[in-house]
């Protein structure tokens, strides 16, 4: 009896030592958009936080377009009156590599209204919804693998004039630092956007979680392709364990490899075609494990892998390359595609039939450089101080995505510093009310400011004299008072200065007066 207890004690000790030396659980943040309370969802008791960190929008009851959508009852949608771009800005995200996933929804009772919009992560567009998305499991969410290094993440939804962006959930799931390493171009400046993730030989859609996969895998979604065409393949499955499956960096679930398809005599090639965006680079990951009882050793089944007709892997021998039967083999390759289709073909060389477990396809996206954080803060101060109406938006990054810059802010890319700067502010006649904040002078690269014809009151900040690149300053037709700051005399590049139509008083700085000789146009006091 004592020996028994001791043995158990040892087993217990060993178990606790090995579990404490295992890596900690990955960071996971899941937001249920529009929810007023934290929620747990079946079957795995997943925790969803109530809605927070959004810049606008309206909560509503949700209709989930697909049974793979998380079972959440609410969503948030962003009508155009809330601005053309709206964001979730989530702070305190540890530095790392993440899978960011967004599920889209349909507002209850408006399910025929399928909105089309764009999604960006950290200023880079990762997804444009295509019509018909709500009827396709693979398109009811967007997913991208990104490095988050500055402690926060901004996920923005951009209206394209075709319905209101409508979001059910946001997940930020940490993955391995080296997950999906595909070669030297991989890294911090690159985002992998999930195009397709297919599991072969099974009929049920699965998440890593359904496969009891490791959380470091990022709870991937696997779309089932039961067959590659009529009579061309046969499903295979096994209950046997699979070696080398759940390993760094990708932690694929072991159970993924327990099903596969094998080609048949009627058509020895296994071929799969999918639609892709043209002129992009794709990272393609192929999964194999020899689970067919008829293949007993290396050399018995050998095939080539072709992409759009070009050979990318020659003489793939799953048993030979993985080291054994019932052992996972993962191959990846990166290809540039010019057309709109991607065809993956497995062509048998020995053994007459090819075998395939799963396919993953990612679009390789070069991440946008962002706007200098100091300038973003200055614009935010301006937004607040001038009471910029909601319709302006001014959420997320001012300059990127390049397709959706903030209206009224002109951007310039500084190649040497790798950052965007603001070189112009054009907000004339916009009905703005408020005062000019000192922070406006933090926009060091401004060449032009036009705030003419608004209802701006208070004084002209003397700090404006430090924006030495300024060539045009038009503050005419507002309610500015006080005197013209002496510091404006230091703006040696200034060619046009319109301060007329205000309630300014006092004298004109002498340094300004002298420069009129150069053909500059300065207007001061008259209304
Ligand atoms: C949302 O659903 C709840 C009950 O599930 C209901 O009480 C509420 O009125 C609904 N809200 C709207 C805006 O339809
Ligand atoms: C993907 O392929 C590249 C190039 O063949 C290889 O260096 C890399 O290790 C592979 N990545 C993984 C995670 O297996
Ligand atoms: C694809 O990758 C190549 C090599 O890294 C690069 O030169 C090219 O610009 C990439 N193309 C696109 C569309 O990203
Ligand atoms: C400033 O904007 C107003 C209204 O848009 C325009 O009429 C005016 O010419 C602009 N000023 C300058 C100096 O370009
Ligand atoms: C400018 O106008 C504000 C009211 O808008 C007033 O409080 C302030 O005293 C005025 N300043 C000067 C210098 O006239």
Description:
- The protein is mainly beta.
- It has 3 domains: 28-174, Galactose-binding lectin (Jelly Rolls); 192-366, Sandwich (Jelly Rolls); 373-523, Ribonuclease Inhibitor (Leucine-rich repeat, LRR (right-handed beta-alpha superhelix)), CATH 3.80.10.
- 8% of the residues lie in helices and 39% in strands.
- It has a 15-stranded mixed β-sheet that branches. Strands 27-28-30-32-34-36 form a 6-stranded mixed β-sheet, with no helix packed on it.
- The radius of gyration is 29 Å and the shape is elongated.
- The model is unreliable at 1-20 (pLDDT under 50).
- Bound molecules: 2-acetamido-2-deoxy-beta-D-glucopyranose (5 copies).
- One 2-acetamido-2-deoxy-beta-D-glucopyranose is lined by residues 60-61.
CATH architecture of the largest domain: Sandwich
What is the oligomeric state here? single chain
Q: What is the global morphology?
A: elongated
The helix tally amounts to 4
Main sheet makeup: 15 strands, mixed
CATH topology category name of the largest domain: Jelly Rolls
Beta strand %: 35-45%
Bound compounds, please? 2-acetamido-2-deoxy-beta-D-glucopyranose
InterPro entries: Leu-rich_rpt (IPR001611), LRR_dom_sf (IPR032675), Malectin-like_Carb-bd_dom (IPR024788)
Keywords: Membrane, Signal, Transmembrane, Transmembrane helix
Organism: Gossypium raimondii
Membrane topology: Single-pass membrane protein
Keywords:
4 helices; 6-stranded mixed β-sheet; single chain; Jelly Rolls; 15-stranded mixed β-sheet; 527 residues; mainly beta; binds 2-acetamido-2-deoxy-beta-D-glucopyranose; 36 strands; elongated; Leucine-rich repeat, LRR (right-handed beta-alpha superhelix)
